[in-house]
Write a structure and sequence with these properties.
The protein starts with 7 loop residues before the first helix and ends with a helix. By secondary structure, the chain is of the alpha/beta class. Helices cover 41% and strands 18% of the residues.
């Protein structure tokens, strides 16, 4: 029997008692059963799905902001959260209110209990944390109600809990190697899983891909009779310039051209994410005419993407970035070189044990001068001493300092920045894990 929590703390206790997101039993059976008992709320509004490896959250937030600039009431579902689980479920750009979330839980709890009981009776597992959060999001969006839901896919695609919705528009951001223990060890295998979000008759907006991934996506589109829009062909970033607080873009969309678009996010990867978001929104509205350029500019200008090259302090400049795999590290490294003029870059790095730490450090060592190795506050964290030994092999002993406690690691980095950056040119980047970025936001009073 599931209790009916009267507070968020009780709700989080209920959710945290379930399988964590890092533990997967690939199946849509449990979530589909819950949704069916609930009356399939995910079918009561149109859905735009964002799948891929990196860039999903930022692209989803851009899509959401653009839709709101056109006056639509939106629901946005992203994962994981940085500090507060309510960040995952947003209504009109704001985290869901506590009372509304608790109401949604009371609505779905009886159905979750039924599916839990049936699944365990058959030798299966109860619904996981992510499955219940997904059910909460779909229920809250139906209750609001929203005009459109923007859904970031979790780890996979075809068996991801979010895939109980049939998205009219599916976005596939660049695919890289991550979660190989569940998704497959090759780009082809991973792309096959992620392409499972493509449904019959959908419009598919495809970011720049390695050939192996692109072939899989295009084959899936052909099988589902889905229309395809490819970055670099049907739409593109045509001009880009670094600007104060972000970048200035000119975008060629599917329906028209949009010059002088200010995006308050750093890095060329975010420019590419913007082009995907624009094409997705154009596809959603349909027709042959260009979107209102002023509304497009407003939507991009008001986009926020917490934890993605976010400046959280100045003097010295401290940034946080949730990159946690080699693909994300490459985007982060390029953005640091592109958008900042630091004379010295110090990184505070902590990672989870299931990540490709060596690949991440190999990329980051090209742009950082020194690293302070620490440990995220997670049972899945890679021991700091183990990560520091690996970092010393890659960067050299003289560039690596060990500080398992994050507060101490940040103090060390700040002191070192003061030493080496007397002209104010030293920068600190905190990265390697979403969990570590959340730790940093709390420590720096940005949560």
């Amino acid at each position: 029997m599931i209790n009916s929590p009267s507070s968020l703390d009780e709700l989080w206790g209920e959710l945290n008692s379930r399988w964590p997101e890092s533990r997967i039993a690939p199946s849509l059976a449990r979530i589909a059963s819950v949704m069916e008992l609930m009356g399939d709320p995910q079918r009561s509004y149109p859905v735009i799905t964002i799948a891929g490896t990196n860039g999903k959250s930022s692209t989803a937030r851009m899509v959401d902001s653009l839709l709101r600039s056109f006056g639509l009431r939106t629901g946005l579902y992203t994962s994981p959260h940085l500090v507060d689980p309510r960040e995952r479920i947003c209504l009109e750009g704001e985290p869901i209110e506590a009372g509304r979330l608790l109401d949604a839980w009371r609505d779905i709890a009886p159905y979750v209990a039924i599916v839990d009981q049936n699944s365990t009776a058959d030798g299966g597992t109860t619904l996981s944390y992510f499955e219940v959060m997904t059910a909460l999001a779909y229920a809250a969006f139906a209750d609001a109600p929203v005009d459109v839901a923007v859904i970031e896919v979790g780890m996979g695609g075809s068996w991801d809990a979010t895939n109980v919705a049939d998205a009219a528009v599916a976005v596939i951001t660049p695919i890289g190697l991550d979660h190989t223990e569940y998704l497959g060890e090759t780009l082809t295998e991973i792309a096959e899983e992620k392409a499972g979000v493509i449904k019959a008759g959908a419009t598919v907006v495809v970011g720049q891909q390695d050939l192996a991934a692109a072939e899989v996506i295009l084959l899936r589109c052909a099988e589902q009779d889905a229309a395809v829009a490819r970055e670099g062909l049907e739409f593109a970033v045509t001009e880009r310039a670094v600007a104060v607080g972000g970048q200035l873009l000119s975008l060629r969309g599917l329906r028209g051209s949009y010059p002088d678009v200010f995006l308050p996010l750093f890095g060329i990867h975010q420019a590419h994410n913007a082009s995907l978001a624009l094409a997705a929104v154009e596809s959603f509205f349909g027709g042959d005419s260009a979107l209102d350029a002023d509304a497009v500019r407003e939507g991009f200008a008001t986009t926020v993407s917490p934890g993605r090259l976010q400046i959280v302090r100045t003097g010295p400049t401290v940034l946080v970035d949730a990159a946690h795999n080699p693909h994300g590290a490459a985007s982060l490294a390029a953005a640091i070189e592109d958008s900042f003029q630091f004379t010295s870059v110090l990184a505070v790095i902590g990672m989870l044990a299931d990540k490709d730490a060596a690949g991440f450090l190999e990329v980051m060592q090209t742009v950082v001068h020194e690293v302070v190795i620490t440990e995220p506050q997670s049972p899945r964290a890679m021991p700091a001493a183990e990560l520091a030994a690996l970092a010393a092999e890659i960067l050299g002993d003289d560039r690596v300092t060990l500080a398992p406690d994050f507060a101490g690691a940040l103090d060390l980095a700040m002191a070192r920045a003061d030493e080496v950056g007397n002209d104010g040119g030293a920068g600190i980047i905190i990265t390697g894990s979403v969990v570590l970025v959340g730790d940093a936001l709390r420590a720096l009073g940005k949560a």
